[in-house]
Amino acid sequence: MEVERVQAMASALMTAETIPADFIRPEQERPAITTYQGPAPDIPTIDLSLPDRESVVRAIAQACEEWGIFQVVNHGIPTELISRLQAAGKHFFDLPPEEKEAYAKPPGSQSIEGYGTRVSKEVNGKRMWNDHLFHKVWPPSTVNYRFWPTNPPNYREVNEEYTKYMREVADKLFLCLSLGLGLEETAVKEAIGGEELEYNLKINYYPPCPRPDLALGVAAHTDLSTLTILVPNDVPGLQVLKDGRWIDAKYIPNALIVHVGDQIEILSNGRYKAVLHRSTVNKEKARMSWPVFLEPPEEWVVGPLPQLLSPESPPKYKAKKFKDYMYCKLNKLPQ
């Protein structure tokens, strides 16, 4: 195996007192020091089934403006389907290493798809405590089943069914985002790719960590996406920066967590905020999450919506192709 997987390393360290130095965060990032311990507000929770659409639109717009993140309940995805999605993902990560490696991201590949571990270190030379599986789920023309596990046998069926429901939830959210900006119902979705919008599923696997006070599963970042819609397991770990403080996201069974990504912040000209978030790890249990990143096609140009611009509200962001935005962000170049 060319890459040392975090899961394998964590298994070998189960009784250790410490972790390798390249996983130890600088003091100003360590969760034990930086997590806010006082009374903190909860991330907004929104019931998508309420008959009063105006109140749902208002709640989502307010959450996007003040938080950049919210949880949705009664979203229409069956509880048992979420359970099957989680069971299929856990089954994959419980497989022997050689079975998982059959789906590894090819060496030198520019694609995000495949089983992997982030090898490139961050600017400060640190690594993150997680492995992942990444593959596209929509539209069909972009799907490469080479990276979809065949074990468990129901993996494809479950993920395709989940994607069907996920697209319905996404359409509801885009409609609410449009109305919240005072625009036509279809304005936001059309501005970020319409029916060409790509859905990328990632399974994050954060193994138990002997020193969760020193490590992070994922360092602080905003998502490149338009929206990220995520299902977690029951092991807490998501934190968001709110009013300068890192606060824990409360676990709500079967809720979806919705992150505003960079592209929605850009097209709303800053009205909706991309959320700065990170993931902590647990000493006893593996944390898992299933984010779906909704992204424009690479050649699609995203910029502030003209309807939102005026002499009093000039553009705050440049319009650019999504692939160029992605290149700058991943290589830490100015936008």
From TrEMBL:
UniProt keyword list: Dioxygenase, Flavonoid biosynthesis, Iron, Metal-binding, Oxidoreductase, Vitamin C
Pfam families, alphabetized: 2OG-FeII_Oxy, DIOX_N
Top-rank taxon: Eukaryota
Stretches of the chain forming a coiled coil according to its record: none
Molecular function, one GO term: L-ascorbic acid binding
InterPro entries reported for this sequence: DIOX_N, IPNS-like_FE2OG_OXY, IPNS-like_sf, Iron_ascorbate_oxido_reductase, Oxoglu/Fe-dep_dioxygenase_dom
Claim: Metal-binding is one of the keywords in the record: yes
Cofactor: L-ascorbate
Gene Ontology process terms (BP): flavonoid biosynthetic process; pigment biosynthetic process
Family note: Belongs to the iron/ascorbate-dependent oxidoreductase family.
Name under which the protein is recorded: Fe2OG dioxygenase domain-containing protein
Source species of the chain: Eucalyptus globulus (Tasmanian blue gum)
Lineage: Eukaryota, Viridiplantae, Streptophyta, Embryophyta, Tracheophyta
